[in-house]
Amino acid sequence: MKKSNIVLIGFMGTGKSVIGRKIAKELNMDFLDTDHEIEELVGMKIRDIFRCYGEKRFRSEETLVIKRVSLCENTVISCGGGVVLSAENVAALRRCGLMVELYADAQVIFERVKNNRNRPLLKGASVEDIEARYESRRKFYEVADIRIDTGLQNIEETVKTLKQAVSDLEGR
Ligand code: S3P
Hints:
Layout: E1 5-9, H1 16-26, E2 30-33, H2 34-42, H3 46-53, H4 55-69, E3 75-78, H5 87-96, E4 97-103, H6 106-113, H7 127-141, E5 146-149, H8 155-170
Parallel strand pairs: 1-3, 1-4, 2-3, 4-5
Helix pairs in contact: 1-8, 2-4, 3-4, 6-7
The structure holds shikimate-3-phosphate (S3P).
The site of shikimate-3-phosphate has 10 residues, from loops.
């Protein structure tokens, strides 16, 4: 069955936003980033929401945003890495789109995120910390219909691989 959206899930630093924007453009689809939607909704940066109100409040704002974005059509939805921790979020997203997990080696993720201050959960994280957090989430990412390793190829090649995988599955 053809679903109208492409939902990108996966750990922080796996390239969901960059790859999502690019594939949306190539497939003539809209693009949405749930973190950006949360920032608009709350009127604060993600790191400030965590700092001022904590993760629990962030997760409830995230679920509100997921409910809203899951009503979209013809959209690539790039999800924050922790979206899959909620069964409610997963159910809504599964109904609305093809689920694609982007993943990468912990070392690759470490290199990508080490100088970025916008991810409170990875502040000061080592490669081992990243590995441990990914392991604790592995089963949640298993809801994906397709998995793509973004550490193996450059962005253009990864987008090509993803496009092919989506087309094989949906005839897009
Ligand atoms: C989070 C991932 C972040 C953001 C928040 C929490 C997570 O998004 O939603 O910092 O729990 O994995 P990215 O995956 O886009 O970095």
